[in-house]
């Protein structure tokens, strides 16, 4: 490729994701004091305008930290040493949740699901029954398993938990909040966490936590020692001062305000529909190229798609897209390392972006010796677009 085009880069990883110009501009605004009235106005604006995105009636708490810190906060604010917890493990990030809970001394019961498949309500119900009345403090689930491109049926799982236990339902929403509908009350979710660098179109550096009334009560009553990740501190400081207990990433929160503007301008329902369209366009194009997908259409995530190529190395496809087209996608993790590649399509992503990556895939497969299918995947994706728009 000519060096003329090397400064044009295209990011299709499932995080970080591209940053809109409006968000970059907001983050470049002059700094304000984080203990000033201006900041109080800013954080209240963001915390309340994010409520529909999280499906909560409470302001959303904002931490200056990573997605993993949000997962750890969800554990340390609810589970005491020796408590029993169920963790649904359907991929790398379910495994991470289990490891965090084990590190804090919880007795973890892992419900292991085949990677590439979702957890069904029946599987969860049978697993709960197999524990013979063991008192479960919390059930942890991953809404969207980033490592496999699977969207779990969170609403149905929440109904099972509510029916069969008194446990809290704590959900990792890191790679889908901002792209999928959620109603914490209807879905029986008590704590829902995410981070900034996925569907919320921000750089890494912020974590978000939303609660139900029951979740907030559990946080206030949890005896576990914690300091920076003490969510009670965040709630109390917000309620009393409209601030944060520790120094926040002010610029990122200014960017989050611009994200709220963009979501409201597009319309929240339209944001959800756009992500479904991006998923359907990409999957249709990949099917047309004969590349096996890791997940079924029923389980498929609207934010990340995992592809399991046959006869061609997934890492080689990943490298070729980067070298020839400046397109960055993700590889597999842990059990799937070297076996799949993953394409992120969340946040600041359009149907035209999907056509770009499919066109590059057509050329890359031809480069590796497959019979050329130039335009085939793009045509199929365009047909999906035409049916939906």
Topology of this protein?
Layout: E1 10-11, H1 21-27, H2 37-49, H3 51-54, E2 61-63, H4 67-76, E3 84-89, H5 92-103, E4 107-112, H6 121-130, E5 136-142, E6 144-145, E7 150-151, H7 154-164, E8 168-172, E9 191-195, E10 207-211, H8 213-221, H9 231-241, H10 250-266, H11 268-288, E11 304-307, H12 314-325, E12 327-328, E13 330-331, E14 341-344, H13 351-367, H14 376-388
Parallel strand pairs: 1-12, 3-4, 3-5, 5-8, 8-9
Antiparallel strand pairs: 2-10, 6-7, 9-10, 11-14, 13-14
Helix pairs in contact: 1-10, 2-10, 6-7, 10-11, 11-13, 11-14, 12-13, 13-14
N-to-C order of helices and strands: EHHHEHEHEHEEEHEEEHHHHEHEEEHH
Share in helix: 40-55%
| Number of structural domains | 2
Our estimate of the beta-strand percent is 5-15%
**Gross geometry:** globular
Specify the structural class.
Answer: alpha/beta
Distance between the termini: 34 Å
Tell me, rounded to a whole number, the average pLDDT.
96
Gyration radius, rounded: 21 Å
CATH topology of the largest domain: Aspartate Aminotransferase, domain 2
CATH superfamily of the largest domain: Type I PLP-dependent aspartate aminotransferase-like (Major domain)
- Helix count? 14
Strand order of the largest sheet: 2-10-9-8-5-3-4
Poorly predicted residue ranges: none
Count of strand segments: 14
Pfam families: Aminotran_5
Binding site for substrate: 342
Keywords: Aminotransferase, Pyridoxal phosphate, Transferase
GO molecular function: alanine-glyoxylate transaminase activity; L-serine-pyruvate transaminase activity
